[in-house]
Amino acid sequence: MNKFQSIANAVDNYITTHTPNILREFTDYLSLPNHASSPEDTKRNAVFIKEMFEKRGVEIEISELPGARPFIYGEYNVPKAERTILLYAHYDGQPVNAGQWNSDPWNPIIRTTTIEKAGEIRPFPEHGEHIDPDWRIYARSASDDKAPFIAIAAALDALRENNINVTSNLKFIFEGEEEIGSPHLAEYLRKYRKKLKADVLAICDGPVHQSGKPQLYFGARGFACLDITVYGPNRPLHSGHYGNWAPNPSLLLVHLLASMKDPDGNVRIENFYDGAEGLSDDEKKIIDAYPDTGDDLKSEFGVAKPEGKNNSLIERLLLPSLNIHGLEGGPVGNLAQNVIPSSASASIDIRLVKGIEPGVMLDRVEDHIRKQGFHIVREEPGIKTRMKYPWLAKIVRHEGYSAVRTRMDLPGTNAIIEAAQRAAGEEVVLLPTMGASLPLYIFKDLLNIPIVGIPIANHDNNQHGPDENIRIGNLWYGIKLFASLLAQAK
Amino acid sequence: MNKFQSIANAVDNYITTHTPNILREFTDYLSLPNHASSPEDTKRNAVFIKEMFEKRGVEIEISELPGARPFIYGEYNVPKAERTILLYAHYDGQPVNAGQWNSDPWNPIIRTTTIEKAGEIRPFPEHGEHIDPDWRIYARSASDDKAPFIAIAAALDALRENNINVTSNLKFIFEGEEEIGSPHLAEYLRKYRKKLKADVLAICDGPVHQSGKPQLYFGARGFACLDITVYGPNRPLHSGHYGNWAPNPSLLLVHLLASMKDPDGNVRIENFYDGAEGLSDDEKKIIDAYPDTGDDLKSEFGVAKPEGKNNSLIERLLLPSLNIHGLEGGPVGNLAQNVIPSSASASIDIRLVKGIEPGVMLDRVEDHIRKQGFHIVREEPGIKTRMKYPWLAKIVRHEGYSAVRTRMDLPGTNAIIEAAQRAAGEEVVLLPTMGASLPLYIFKDLLNIPIVGIPIANHDNNQHGPDENIRIGNLWYGIKLFASLLAQAK
């Protein structure tokens, strides 16, 4: 048995012996409401975190910019450290609509599997009681993003109880405004810039692979979005008296949107895919080895035919995407009114890949809209503008941010890949970029160190929605992952 | 001065002298809330109408079917009547959203012109005070459809005070459920069928021509509608993690809708226009003489370019129409969520012309949807159906009713045309069919007599919306129209 195996066994034993304590601390933490709109709630979380980490010997400093939620900086230094790892997590959560949940989002419960699979509620285990890794804890932020906090704390405990040497210095940055768009993150990072020197930044957020395999990601797509409003008559008109005569803005809008992307998922906007930075040969090999979960996902989501022709999910995520996420042209069904509406709107999000900047991409979309015959305005058009241009589109641009992708073969990233593999006891899945967007550019611009995402949550965690949950086995993986990172002796 | 002219002058004088009384009775009537959802409110209206007409010597009978609002039947018989005219009007109104009104919808006020033209509020006139015909009364149902009631009552008073012979028998049917779709009209008509024998049915509802000229209509378009729901993943998916892979139902829906109608307004559904009954040569002449108000309407509604190529509004109304009145694929703007929605829906209304039945038309639309590659379902699809068909469309059909058009050259209709022209003092506009839909088929099927629409309200009356109003001059025209009809001696 090599040294790594003995560490892994020790951590496993620790988890088995201390399950009730770990889960009790976790449920105490999960019981604290944490939406960033409440200064009181976020403060209570910050105080909880401070005490939780100070108990483990981490030096904690809470900082508060005016109008911002607390930012928590922490340091854990060891003699003769081989490296310094900067860990990021956020303690704020998405808002909850309690009426849509099957249980109280602030009163964590255990189920034997998902609600969809009719999981039954079970009491939390007492000392010595068995807990199945497939069981789940349901509560807001159970996955996103309170799980890493408890996993780090338990990893520190496990190493200390077994007298295992910690060989990495740790620095922590814990944010309280991630779910509202990180409005003060850059300012906080600038404030702490000098202290944040490290070999690698590990982002403790996001889900593992859909197959359940551990996964690391080395980037995230960028983001841009735009709202389009197309105009008809200046007030809704009776569709009997004026139907066939007054132009219908919904009709103009569906033609415009249909021109942007074909039903097979190929964007038809000129130059849309141009400039995307290709993959290195190494990255291509990794992509080829990436597990294809297409059939499982199709069953899970009830999808007969995904977009794209024979492309796997991972290949599709390496391309920029265009998605109509909002569409409004009057109510349907029982609330429908027989009118020609006065306007119709769509919201479109664009996921960007490395090499295409948000402003450039939005310009391409606007050029396309003009080519379809629309005159673009930035404000509600008045009567003169309406009488001048048959087709008017008001565009509101949201420039978002660029994609970031770290090389996968740097010393800092390699250390993390190895630690994850040891924790998992198997090859981990390497993802050159998440499909989702994260403002990694803030870290990249200010810190200029490699960035690796080290998610622990199961992919079906209902993140952001009702009935958020974490699989117990994923929490255990998290503890092992952090223990492995901390005790990563050469 | 011929006899007709002397009658017209007498009625004019009556209006001038009795303006305050007429408007007082009207405002009392308008102060009664009248949505069909309230049995108490509609009952109060029915009692008011009974007293109003009994005072003028009309025999009134109120009938109530279980669960229905009161139906009012009235008779006014004169010796040696030359004809019998059956008059229809409805006393119920659209619901109100008082917060959207500029004044209390149940407290009628006078303005010197429309709110859009900054009309000022004026007190109701005292005896001898002048009132401008361009002034307006604002209240729910001022136009739709309480104005005809007061106009008929005032016409009877004017004739009696001037000892003018009434030469037509009148029968009245007053409905209390028109705005909720006339669910019991057919049953009430069947109940009264024997009593309803008449030479012509005059529908007292709708607006006059947009130019302000008096107008008669001889039909109305039919109606059909359908709700279409198109499916994506079985739950909303994060547009980052799955954007480019999960099919977006809004994208499929916009392609489907765009295939139905081109941006110029031509419906591309196979056979859509087939079977429409053409116009007779006489009707074509009338259409050619129909005043084209296109430019005025364009300015009024802020429309640079109407649908159709060089077609006037009237020509467009003689064709079936297809209108997307509802469109929903997730919220836009600040409420937008970055997801691939689970479904997207549209509501479409179709206005039918004579010769095309609603069921036939809906079949044509469904055939088109199938040809675009969609599998049609009638219920929410389960996982098996979702996995089997890449493109699914749930269709909910609302069959509506057929168009009705009366010939314009029958004895009964001619009498009404002449009366309207005398009342107007000018040629009236003859409209073969309204663009709007009315369930005239119920009358046609059960009564089998010519049907003529004799509207009195101004076209810009905000019918159905907030700030409904009637122009005073249009109310006066109504009184003259009914007086002329009643005293139509050969």
Overview of this protein structure:
The structure is a homodimer of 490-residue chains. Chain A is of the alpha/beta class and 490 residues long. Chain A folds into two domains: 3-218 and 406-486, Zn peptidases (Aminopeptidase, 3-Layer(aba) Sandwich), CATH 3.40.630.10; 222-279 and 318-401, Alpha-Beta Plaits (2-Layer Sandwich), CATH 3.30.70.360. The first copy, chain A, is 32% helix and 21% strand. Chain A has 13 helices and 21 strands. In chain A, helix 10 (383-388) links the parallel strand 15 (375-377) and strand 16. In chain A, helix 1 (3-30) crosses helix 3 (147-161), helix 3 packs across helix 13 (472-486) and helix 11 (411-424) packs across helix 13. The model of chain A has no long low-confidence stretch (mean pLDDT 93).
What is this structure, in a nutshell?
By secondary structure, the first copy, chain A, is of the alpha/beta class. The first copy, chain A, has helices at residues 3-30, 39-54, 147-161, 185-192, 249-260, 281-289, 294-301, 313-317, 358-371, 383-388, 411-424, 440-447, 472-486; strands spanning 59-63, 71-76, 83-90, 109-111, 121-122, 136-138, 168-175, 200-203, 215-217, 219-231, 237-238, 321-328, 339-340, 343-352, 375-377, 392-401, 404-405, 429-431, 434-437, 451-453, 469-471.
